[in-house]
Structures are given as C-alpha cells and as structure tokens.
Fold this protein.
Amino acid sequence: MHVEYEEFSSVSDIFSYMAAVMPPMKNTMPINYYKGYVFAFIPLTHNGGDVYLMIYTKAELDGRILEFDINANTFKKVLAIERADKTYFVVVSPKRNTIADEAIKKLA
C-alpha cells in the first residue's frame, strides 16, 4: 500500500474537502479520530489499486456525530442526523488501526 499525504490546518478544512468530494445525494461520511489525528483515506486508484490519499490534521474531536455547515465552515456535536441540507460526519475512533499506524509513522 502506498499513501500520499495532504495536511490541513483545521478540522473544518478537512470537512470542507470531504463535503466537496462526497457523492451526490449523500450527506453522511465517516471521519477517523486516532492517536491525535483527524483523517480520512481516499483511494486514488480504481479497480483495486493500493494508492491512497490521507487527508489529515492534528486535532481532537468531541462527539460521535458532527453536523457541518459548509457555508459557515463550522461544525457542532449533535445527537442525530436530521437535516438534508447539512453534511454529517460520524466519528470513528478505533482501538487499533494498523493502516493508520503505518501512515502516521511515515509522517514523522
């Protein structure tokens, strides 16, 4: 597996990026929070290739479901996914993530 990296200065910037590349009619996406990093892996190759883009920032996330307003570039913790005009991120915090471990190791 080969990982390329794109670092952002804030969680809001990552959410803006993710909202822009989301498939049409989809308003919910997972976001990873692991070892002090907020990130997502995006495949760069089709048909089973092994090249990924890791978009990331060093930050902390509080919440399980985050509602993102792309116009205001802000997000907040919510209890449910309720509005079709907002983008939601489900925070995934695994106990162990070997792919992320390898990618994070190469950042240093």
Remarks:
- The two ends are 18 Å apart (CA to CA).
- The chain has one domain: 2-107.
